[in-house]
Amino acid sequence: MKIIKIIIIIIVVIVAALLLTAAFAPKEYAVSRSVTINADKQEVFEYVRFLKNQDNYSVWSEMDPDMNKTFTGTDGTVGFTSAWSSDNKDVGKGEQEITGIIAGKRVEFELRFMEPFEATDMAYITTIQEGDATKTTWGFNGKMSYPMNLMLLFMNFDEVLGSDLQNGLDNLKEILEAPAAEEIEENM
Description:
Layout: H1 2-24, E1 28-37, H2 41-48, H3 54-57, H4 59-63, E2 68-72, E3 81-85, E4 93-102, E5 106-115, E6 119-130, E7 133-143, H5 157-177, H6 179-186
């Protein structure tokens, strides 16, 4: 009986310590990656402002090319929503909505995840002209409520999400720097 009492006390102390730690742990995280694309800023911006184009460069789209997708509104404008549903647990179910556009500079998105977990996070893509090239940044800002924010102490979101963002940006760079992209622009 005394051993059971000691085990219960140890469990209570551990749980209390974790909850106390979570009270002081960060509740927000931010991850961003950048790439320099050898293309005019306006060309890059005109490509990234359309959510449907993310299917061409986002690594999350590559995880399940057969996922069910639906679209609402006019792509490239505030309010356009792209929803997805997949049996792949790494893709899950959710939607992304364009919430803000600063012409030629920034597109803001709200991501609403429904499965395998529920969360609402913000993302953005910015374009800045640097000489003949464009610095393109893809960022992600999230929040975790108490006590789930304790995971932020054990998970490196910068590493986990950062590699996906960087791979997506590298894909974007390859698409926009391809000779076919230059031919399309010349024919416009």
